[in-house]
């Protein structure tokens, strides 16, 4: 579509939106209407200079460039009037809730719907249609609102007043002003906020500890470890009895017994060695469990312990984002990322034109993720590979083509 500088916008939700006007100079002539540069529509101008036009088919949603010009009876052509017709038939989609955040009390941070919080005005963040107003509602009552960013659609809001103790069933709805009219979209699926004074005392799994094998240390949720009996740690109200349950990827929750308490801190070790695979853990009491905590367990010789190089990130220039192997990029310092055993070392080698001429050692985080940003690279085709230090197997080669303009 061609562009119109300093364009005038018109808005409609009428599928047969037409145009009309009066042009005394063109009486007994013609009006010519062109949509998006296609074949013109022509209608007669009456002896009084009046004309009107209705499209023969429904407008498609979106933006359309419209050009209207008058042709008088002698065939003289006037200057065209151009504008952009915005056609939109639908109210905004339901907003999406991405995060809820508690910034009050002893324990703060993000929490899931249905979990207790002592923050009576938690911060909600999400995404909606750009520029719309997002309303937080309890039943039919609006209890908070915010405008979605005009470029990203991101919105953040807090309830206008403190929420009372107990369960609150809430929804989100987006409202826009279109063609001078308010249009309200469908509400989101309901979600629960559970407000209580004991919210700050909720049971939390903070980390695990790997004390087996050559690589040991603290583990965060999502980590890869070779410890078949990782010790879990967390916090809970003093005097609490904390129970732990666990399950593998396809199993049922298994009772793991009570954790050992030390003031407000607790620890727990599986009663038996866990098999290789993905495991989930949760702590608390029936009906009030913590967020799940995940660990992947793999043993010496397993392919799962080989380092991987999964993607790169471009944060330079007008186009940014994740890069997969084979991508083009204008970022001469792309950040390479992958996974390995938590707290281990990974060797990253790289070079241009198919030859590996550089290498560096990076430490894998407690969540099993690692990243490396090379010094500025010259334009060309670069190859990268990763290997767990001491391992004999390299990851699949990851290639990026660096060039001006990139993606």
UniProtKB/TrEMBL annotation:
List the InterPro entries. Big_13 (IPR044016), Ig-like_fold (IPR013783)
- At the top level of its lineage, which domain of life is listed? Bacteria
Q: What Pfam families does its record include?
A: Big_13
Bacterial Ig-like domain residues are: 33-88, 103-175, 320-389
Note the NCBIfam families from the entry: Ca_tandemer
What is the protein named?
Bacterial Ig-like domain-containing protein
């Amino acid at each position: 579509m061609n562009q119109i500088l300093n364009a005038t916008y018109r808005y409609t939700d009428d599928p047969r939106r037409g145009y009309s006007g009066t042009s005394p100079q063109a009486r007994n002539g013609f009006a010519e209407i062109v949509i998006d540069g296609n074949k013109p529509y022509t209608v007669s101008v009456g002896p009084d200079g009046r004309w009107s036009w209705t499209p023969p088919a429904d407008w498609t949603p979106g933006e359309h460039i419209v050009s209207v010009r008058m042709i008088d009876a002698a065939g003289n052509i006037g200057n065209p009037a151009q504008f952009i017709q915005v056609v939109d038939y639908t109210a905004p989609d339901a907003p999406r809730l991405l995060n809820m955040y508690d910034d009050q009390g002893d324990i703060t941070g993000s929490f899931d719907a249905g979990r207790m919080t002592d923050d009576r005005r938690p911060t909600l963040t999400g995404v909606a249609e750009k520029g719309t107003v997002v309303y937080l509602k309890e039943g039919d009552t609006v209890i908070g609102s915010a405008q979605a960013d005009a470029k990203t659609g991101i919105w953040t809001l807090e309830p206008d007043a403190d929420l009372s103790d107990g369960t609150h069933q809430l929804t989100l709805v987006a409202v826009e002003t279109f063609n001078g009219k308010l249009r309200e979209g469908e509400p989101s699926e309901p979600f629960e906020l559970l407000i209580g004074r004991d919210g700050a005392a909720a049971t939390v799994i903070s980390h695990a500890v790997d004390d087996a094998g050559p690589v040991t240390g603290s583990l965060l949720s999502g980590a890869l470890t070779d410890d078949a009996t990782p010790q879990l740690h967390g916090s809970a109200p003093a005097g609490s009895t904390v129970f732990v349950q666990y399950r593998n990827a396809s199993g049922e929750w298994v009772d793991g017994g009570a954790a050992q308490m030390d003031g407000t801190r607790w620890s727990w070790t599986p009663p038996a060695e866990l098999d290789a695979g993905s495991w989930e853990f949760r702590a608390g009491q029936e009906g009030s469990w913590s967020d799940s905590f995940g660990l992947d367990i793999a043993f010496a010789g397993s392919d799962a312990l080989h380092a991987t190089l999964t993607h790169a990130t471009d944060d330079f220039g007008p186009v940014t984002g994740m890069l997969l192997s084979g991508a083009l990029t204008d970022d001469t310092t792309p950040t390479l990322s992958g996974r390995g055993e938590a707290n281990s070392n990974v060797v990253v080698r790289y070079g241009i034109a198919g030859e590996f001429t550089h290498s560096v050692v990076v430490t894998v985080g407690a969540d099993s993720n690692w990243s490396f940003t090379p010094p500025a690279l010259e334009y060309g085709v670069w190859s990268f590979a990763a290997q767990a230090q001491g391992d004999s197997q390299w990851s699949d080669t990851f290639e990026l083509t660096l060039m001006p303009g990139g993606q």
